[in-house]
Structure prediction request, 455 residues.
Amino acid sequence: MKSVALHNLGCKVNAYELDVMRQMLEDGGYRIVPFEDTADIYIINTCTVTGIADRKSRQMLHRAKKKNPDAVVVAVGCYVQTREDICTDSSIDLAIGNNRKKELLPVLEAYLQKRGEGKQEQRMENQAVCDLSRPVPYEEMTLRGTSGHTRAFLKIQDGCNQFCSYCIIPFARGRVRSRRPENIYREAAALAGSGCQEIVLTGIHLSSYGMDFVKEQGAAGDLREETYRQGCLLHLIRELSGIRGLSRIRLGSLEPRIMTEAFVEGLRSIPQVCPHFHLSLQSGCDATLKRMNRHYLAGEYYEKVKLLRTFFDNPAITTDVIVGFPGESEAEFAETERFLEQVGFYEMHVFKYSKRQGTAAAAMPDQVPDEVKALRSDRLLALEREQSRRYRERMIGKEAEILWEEPVESDGRTYMTGYTREYVRAALLTQEPLSNQLQKRKIAGFLQENTVLVQ
Prediction:
């Protein structure tokens, strides 16, 4: 029985796909070991969204080969998909791109067989990468359960058609393709049946779910398409809410344009929907948004936030922000900073702009120096910590529903930890095994900066 160590980099979609690949390997008779162990095979699910992600992907691949030079090192995913020179890296024995991950087992075993027979191949032959510049079908993968049995990612969509000027992901993931509702429902029901009480719907561009179904239904026109896909996603969520044992439905990253009054009101009518919404922003300056090829203005974004706050009581709203985009002046950055202060987020993920070859922004003039990006990032991260603390403080004295996950040790004491519906981490001083139980508890204060204490 060969041992396999796996490591994931990147987004929730990657995390879901690696869980499925782990399941495939276990079914195939492989023994899964921690990545820190010496293994026969190392599988790294890579990311390429930023230059840092590229570097981390290379570092993990090189670390695996250094740990065991005789091991088979397999690079999988987005970094593979966008690097034409992938097989010039001597640390990589086998490369598998996106939309080929479900073929991991047969591709790996074919490689192992040839290697065992002593057949010398050209390194360029050790690839399984498909052309995602052309339409491809949705890659159907199914997850039966998760190790924690409390929360599971559920992938319902792949690809992106937006082509934001800074983003390489449409090239790494291809065009929008949606999973059939019946397959999503079947997997969600199985996850709930295994004891999982919360699912997180995820995709590369979740707001586009159902967009490719428009052609099948004969819909036409931008307005019809927008309305149709909103209805598709809302209908899917309603269907999932009827699954026995499924207590929570959490949504992954959404575009602000999907948040119409009808859509938000529909979400509020579904008790399982968690009041935690990640609305991608990227900049609070209209001029920067235009250069980014984002399809909204800052004022429109704020209207969507206010709409969510009208229909939900103190929803947790999180976002992404890019600093140092080409041409971002001090005045434009200050405009973004003021906008972020006005909105008041629960959490912000702050990224320094990373030039990705092949994107429109890579060729733009007025590239911002790294030291300026670092200073701007530090300012927004400080603002993020302040806003996050304020949000948690507003919860003190109130009752919150918590889905308990696991015990942790802090200062010699044992606490049970879990998450509220708003995705606020909570801790209870107890040695009682509460894992996968839902409880309502009063928030008393803070255990740590990012953890509230309940009683």
